[in-house]
Amino acid sequence: MSSSRRPITWTATPTDAGRVEYDVDKVGTFTLGYCTSTYAGYDDQARLEVGFGRWREDHHPGRGGLLQDAPCINTITLIGGTSFDPAQALAYLTDPDDWAGWLTVLRSEHGHTVHAPWATCARTAYIVARLVQDFLERPDAPDLLAAHRRHLAPARIAAHRDHLRAVVDELDEWNTRAALEQQLLEIQEALLADTPPPPQPAPPAWRDYHRAATRGGETFLLGTVGATRPR
Predict the structure, then answer these.
(1) Residue ranges per structural domain of the chain
(2) 3-state secondary structure the chain
(3) Predicted pLDDT at 230
(4) pLDDT of 177
(5) Neighbours of 221 (CB within 10 A)
(6) What's the confidence (pLDDT) of residue 41?
(7) How far apart are CA 133 and CA 130, in angstroms?
(8) Which pLDDT does position 65 carry in this prediction?
């Protein structure tokens, strides 16, 4: 048996946020949970997140920060956490060569965040994969997912409201632009027909093209920016 695959034992404690704190004997704590860092319409179960230590904040620790009771593997203390595909974690249990970088393992060195050595990564990957297996097979897995979604609901409600406001603003912008383009079209058609043109409309308020919701919208605003941008 590879040294990276030595058996582990742990104590598991569910949290109100739908995560599980795994206190791995002689190693430290790993906190597993469903994905928190993606768009709210995304499938929460498509990725899992691990915090190397007791992850109790709303937001995932990401690449930085030393969590309480962080694991120490091969004398190296892990920092932050990462997200990953649970299917890749389970595949790693059956095929140790199926690595493909599915888990990012970081340490702090001279004040900089760097990748841990390979042996530490391999051991960490095995531990996390075993904990993922337990996490997904837990009898209370549906309850954990429900708790996860309830926990994130207030932040997601705020995000959806922000998105809705942005969409409404975008629609108002393009409705105004559509009316303007129609007026300009009628002026050109009148000139071609040698008939009196309608009054020239006022230029629209300038809008930063970087704020367009689509690539096509950005291209359009770039094309009209010279005529509308304030001087």
Answers:
(1) 3-152, 154-228
(2) CCHHHCCCCEEEEECCCCCEEEEECCCEEEEEEECCCCCCCCCHHHCEEEECCCCCCCCCCCCCCCCCCCCEECCEEECCEEEECHHHHHHHHHCCCCCCCCCCCEEEECCEEEECCHHHHHHHHHHHHHHHHHHHHCCCHHHHHHHHHHHHHHHHHHHHHHHHHHHHHHHHHHHHHHHHHHHHHHHHHHHHCCCCCCCCCCCCCCCCHHHCCCHHHHHHHHHHHHHHCCC
(3) 46
(4) 86
(5) 20
(6) 63
(7) 5
(8) 86
Q: Are 230 and 207 in contact (CB under 8 A)?
A: no
- Which tokens is 120 given? 């530490």
CA torsion sign for 43, 59, 84, 71 is negative
In angstroms, the CA 87 to CA 96 distance is 14
Q: Please say whether the beta carbons of 123 and 4 come within 8 A.
A: yes
d(CA 12, CA 189): 74
Q: What is the pLDDT of residue 39?
A: 63
Under-70 pLDDT residues of the chain: 1, 38-41, 98-100, 206, 225-231
8 A C-beta contact, residue 98 and residue 109: no
Place of tokens 């308020």: 205
- Taken as a whole, the chain contains a residue count of 231
What is the reported pLDDT for 222?
A: 78
Question: pTM for the full model?
Answer: 0.78
Cα 138 → chain centroid: 25
d(CA 123, CA 76): 11
